[in-house]
Amino acid sequence: MVTLRHKNKVVSVDAPAHAQLYHFIRNSSDDLSVRYGCGTGHCGACTVLVNDQAQNSCSTPLWSIDSAEIKTPQDLIDDPVGQVILNAFLSEQAAQCGFCINGILMRLTGLLKANAHATDEHITEILMRHLCRCGAHTRIIRAAKLARDQLSQTH
Amino acid sequence: MMNDLSPSLNTHPLASQWIKFLSDGTVLILSGKVELGQGISAALIQTVANELGFKASQIKLIAGDTQLTPDEGYTAGSQSVEVGVKALKHVCSIVKDKYAQTVCVDFKCSIQELELSGGAFKTINGTGSLSFYKISEKCPLSTIVLNESNFPGRVTLTTSTTHELRPTQVEAILRTDFLSKFTGSGYIQDIKLADLWHARVVRGPHPFCKPISYDLKSLETLEGVNKVFIQHNFIALIGRDEERLGLALARAKIAIVWSNPGISPQEDIPTFLVNQPCETSIALERNNSKYVDQTQTYKLKAHYSRPYTAHASIGLCCAVAQASDDIPKLTVWSHSQGIFKLRDQLAQSFEMSKEQIRVIHAQGAGCYGHNAADDVAFDAALIAHKLGINVRVLWSREDELSQSPMGAASLVQLEAEILNTGHIVNWNTQVWSNTHLSRPGWGEGVQLLGAWSAFEDQKQPRPKDVPLPTGGGLRNAVPPYSSDKLRITHHFIENAPVRVSALRSLGAHANVFAIENFIDELGDLINMDPVEVRLLNLVDERAKAVVKEVARMSEWSQRGPAGTSIGTGLGYSQYKNHAGYCAVALQVEVTHKVRVQKVWACVDAGLIVHKDGLMNQIEGGIIQSLSWTLKESVKWDKESVLTLDWEKYPILEFDEIPEIQIHLIDNQSHPSLGAGEVATGPTAGALSNAIAHALGVRIRHMPFTFDNVKKAIEAS
After folding, report:
1. In this structure, are A26 and A95 located in the same domain?
2. Which one of A52, A72, A92 terminates a domain?
3. pLDDT digits (tens, 9 = 90+) for B106-148
4. CA-based nearest distance B536→chain A, Å
5. Helix, strand, coil: what percent of chain B each, to 5?
6. Fewer Cβ atoms within 10 A, N terminus or C terminus of chain A?
């Protein structure tokens, strides 16, 4: 059994060796905001925050994160940093199909929570953990920098 | 008179089949063109805002439902704006015309005294207002005929009287689907039905493999498997726990002995393609003999190629199916590009009537052509139909990259001569390629992977390609440059080492890449600048305009000498030779790898409907083409597809993204032209030309990986 905190609730779940965080979120907590892309941690689509650290939920075993607090894209609406990032992506229309975006939003939230003054290089570095197939990259980069600029002014 | 705006206006001739005005003041669009990530939903909503003056918040959209929406064929081929938006615009215009006449009678005013705002006709003096809904109660949309030829004797409506009746304010529409997708559900993968089962179809290392032997008991006892469904060679694992089922699938694949797929092993693409049996035909021949004195010509012959490329969407193909005792007996949710054709093929496979099956479009991850959406829909439909259950089927990443249809490889041989004056003569194109279209409904038989396994009498239909002028393997094989003689030869190769079908721009990626390299190489023979040689040989003024503009944007005249490791190149095409015009210039630095620094593009897609959507499509087309051209290549051996994950099949990453500057020519006097695929060919051509400028060495075979660039340098 492991205990996780999600949406201010404490949940205890069985954690057999194979059980990954992604499936826990999708199946056990009625949260459909996490995306599944590859199952091997290559594409970043499934990224969530575990104790404010970005992690690929498809390859994070539940047993390894006992007592952790989980944040998913669903939580961004209520998160002051997440809100700024979300608004930047909406105003820049930074997506096409949008499937890769949720993971990107989470990793960016992790970065800008830790360092609102992240450099352009930091942003590119974290985006390297993600793939986008539609070619929305330039918009994503622009939205990420816009969010950083807005957050760095207030922090 | 038949309606030539869209054939669907003839098959769905009533306004009520396209739009509905609801009592809450909103308008509901019923569209057969579906959202594939390309932003068509915003363009459709924008059209209604433009034409009828509704606010964005008052416009709803149902797109793709065999019971509710018109059949507008496939959402493909950059036709959604060109045909789908045009059809909707026509509907709005006819309705506006008819309703305006009614309002004028009611208000005893002239059309000039009316304006449109917030979903209502209003008199300019502010005394009268009548909503579209109210008018529709008196004048139902079902009585408004869009195509008079189907209803002879009715009064023909004309839009001319209300042509100037425009909304007072038109809102610029943004994508309304983003927020819910970013923070919640919105994709087919998120559909949850009551009593839902999960299923995984067990497939071999190659789509042409069949199971030879397996121990059923060992499949049935895999953890997470409640039932094994077997029909002929179709094997599916069914269970409630999706995670355990995924693990069981991996085990089941290796527990089954698979047949050899009977494919030729991989060689370099030009050798592989010319060694395949093929059917040769002359697709086009012209002889204008306009240059009499051809004594001083310089001849050139060159080969160019592209490999097989994967669809490689970030999300996995998925479908949900529901069985019922009532009609429809089968409801299938699919992210197919053509739900009506899918329904027809499901009905054919299951020997059911079309009315017994309903297919509803649900959005998937990015779709760039014929992916496995139809295949997985068959998988789910078969299981639901045979077992009478609700089921969700999701493909694995491995299957996505091995079993899905892929973009076909091409070898293009070009020969021509250039005169001292820069004019081109004796152009001869030869293309070796497979079919570029195997969608359900194209050709004979059922084009669904699962059907070939589940039914003994269903075989993969014999491939056939799309003929010119649209072309599959020959798409854009006709050069835009004037030549006295022109011959296009097609070497159609039936057998492919992987499944092949439509992938964004089909053969145009390879053909434009080849032509745009070749035109530079012809220019080199007489020391003529690439822009000059293009402008001299292009005929169409709109073509010349985009080339000139991109030359200006990229400061072409300042591009500097060749061979400095930094280079600029240019590419141009008019997609399909009849859709949008696009010129791309591109700057690269070549060191141990090719780094694209800047891209400039100029596009003329006629009248712009949704500017940001168009921009987004062009940006995406450029980036996807850079990814294909620089990095992508499907690998296989005689038993299997080898490129099964993102490490073995790398695509462009965020540190490889150039600065992109796009100029759109809003050519309001010309109809909207398809633009979603315009950039792929010109980008590939510009990239290769830029590398040639940077290195002094031309790379004629994609992808431009370190090994291929090294090979080209050594060969030079």
Report:
1. no
2. A72
3. 999 988 899 999 999 999 888 889 999 999 999 999 999 887 5
4. 33
5. 35, 25, 45
6. N
